[in-house]
Amino acid sequence: MNRIDRVTAILIQLQSKRVVKAQEIADRFSISLRTVYRDIKTLEEAGIPIIGEAGIGYTILEGYRLPPVMFTKEEAVAMLTAEKMVEKLTDISTRKMFQASMFKIRSVLRLTERDHLENLEQHIAVVESPYFSNHKNETAYLQDILKAIAGKQLLAISYFAEHSQQYSNRDIEPVGIFFMGRYWYLIAWCCLRNDYRTFRVDHISELSITTTRFNKEHPSLQSFLSKISREKELHTIVIRVQKSVIKYLGEQKYYNGYVSQKDLGDTIEMTFLAGSLEGFSRWYMLFGEWAEIVSPRELTGIVTKNLSALQKKLS
Q1: What is the full DSSP assignment across 152-177?
Q2: Which residues of the chain have pLDDT under 50?
Q3: Global pTM?
Q4: How distant, in Å, are the alpha carbons of 38, 98, 176, 221, 222 from that of 226?
């Protein structure tokens, strides 16, 4: 990226949020802080009212805005790709809002960029797996949840808990949402349990934003995600599978923690990171006749136990 393009991109970044730190700019463009300071000075000399404070960051004087910017062809294609994902992975309300945003984006594109998007649109798709329901996120309440988070408003929900197979009505203080695997999750302070809880959003059958506001300052969403990551014990599993069977594993290998594989001639050595040895053993039994377990030994014992239990049922 040449300097003119970079300085223009920095100006757009400064308009994208209230305060932008120098380090954020440096990280984005892989430049030194000294270069950031020089580029900011260039913008100031061009008449841009930038306010900078040491240790806090840069902000543009309230009320100053450039006219709508033009998107590059690559940026427009990235937005088109994101639109395809939003269509499949979010709820109806989010989908409608993103589509409205895309109309606005398309409206400021040059004709060549618009034609480019129209030509590419039929060549990008996010396909739902036939093994999963494609309706689970249709009414995911994502926009209502985000509205409550922004306004610090209590949510009243009716929730179905898988472990008890029961519905319960709860008042919760929402902290944040995240997408993992195939589902959206909500982390919130549960007034019923008097503790933080993680809710699978598609298990919320009813949700309403109450007029009650909460003042409690909750930890950041990232702190909860880091804790979840630390607490989840992952097992390194190595197996060797005959080459003739590999093609039948399909996408299931990814759902079971596939990491990498190595060609050993007649067999493929595959490495997985799995959260449950028991769960992995059930999947392994589908093709175990054409495979062998390298490690851990504990997995061999679990498979043997499951096979013995199955044999007893069949005898």
Answers
A1: TEEEEEEEEETTTTEEEEEEEEEEEE
A2: none
A3: 0.61
A4: 36, 29, 13, 9, 6
